[in-house]
Amino acid sequence: MTSSPNVIDHPLLQHKISLLRDKDTPPIIFRLLVREIAQLMLFEASRDLAMSAREIETPLAKMTASVLAAPGPVLASIMRAGNVMLDAALEIIPSAAVCHIGIYRDHDTLEAVEYYFNGPPDLADRPLLIVDPMLATANSSVDAISQLKARGVTDMRLICILAAPEGLAALAAAHPDVPVFVGAVDSHLNEKGYIIPGLGDAGDRSYAT
Ligand code: PRP
Ligand code: URA
Q: Is residue 158 in a domain?
């Protein structure tokens, strides 16, 4: 099955993604770019968040103003690399609650290994924006979404900077109900499950490991 991701094909975003891919971009600039990219992508991916009306008074008149509906969104980060996007996303939606999902990819099997989960108690009642820079095999994202669904979450969207066609197909097969927003769809995965041309290991490049 092939999915139809929402590719955010904006010149500012594409420029920053190209800088991010460059192997000579050091971790401090890499993190800065991931933050900027996350904020641009979040702007698009949060377009369908529900609004409610609130009566307020400006210095000149009363009015009915639009605000984010309560309970507000939850930002879910697939650690580690998702945390860089998370911090930037929190600046755009400071009222959001946070869900940390600890998953890493086993280097040999490429299977997702779960090690941590911590989210708000009313997770199931809120819209979720899941952030992770990379969608390669999609094993990590599929696992994270399954963990969220097991806790009752129904309203979620996934935001990834780079995706492989193989991962998009796997995600669409496992969770066809979850919209995915990507900055670019690359060529393919190599024999070690890395996105080609990609940007390398997002966690290692973010945290100099
Ligand atoms: C990276 C990335 C994704 C995952 C994508 O995390 O941040 O979570 O790989 O690969 P997949 O689609 O094939 O699952 P990684 O496993 O390197 O963990 P880390 O961020 O803790 O280093
Ligand atoms: N995880 C990464 O960080 N990069 C890839 O190319 C694939 C998985």
A: yes
Does residue 1 belong to any structural domain of this protein? no
Q: How are beta strands 6-7 and 180-185 bridged, if at all?
A: parallel
pTM: 0.96
Q: Which residues line ligand 1 (CB under 6 A)?
A: 78-81, 104-105, 110, 112, 132-141, 167, 193, 201-203
Residue appearing with tokens 């499950």: 193
Side chain identity at 141, as an amino acid letter? S
Atom of ligand 2 nearest to the CA of 201: 3
What length is written for the chain? 209
And the tokens for 2? 């092939």
CATH number at residue 144: 3.40.50.2020
Question: How many angstroms separate the alpha carbon of residue 113 from the centre of ligand 1?
Answer: 10
Give how many domains the chain has, as a whole number.
1
Average pLDDT over residues 165-175: 98
CA atoms within 13 A on the CB side of 128: 31
Note the pLDDT of residue 191.
96
Q: Which residue segment(s) compose the domain that 97 sits in?
A: 6-207
Question: What pLDDT band is residue 209 in, cutting at 50, 70 and 90?
Answer: very high
Q: For residues 133 and 112, is the Cβ–Cβ distance under 8 A?
A: no
Q: Which residues contact 190 (CB under 8 A, 6 or more apart)?
A: 196
Q: How far does residue 134's CA lie from ligand 1's centre (Å)?
A: 7
pLDDT band at 174 (very low <50, low <70, confident <90, very high): very high
Task: Kindly report the number of other CB atoms within 10 A of residue 196's CB atom.
Answer: 10
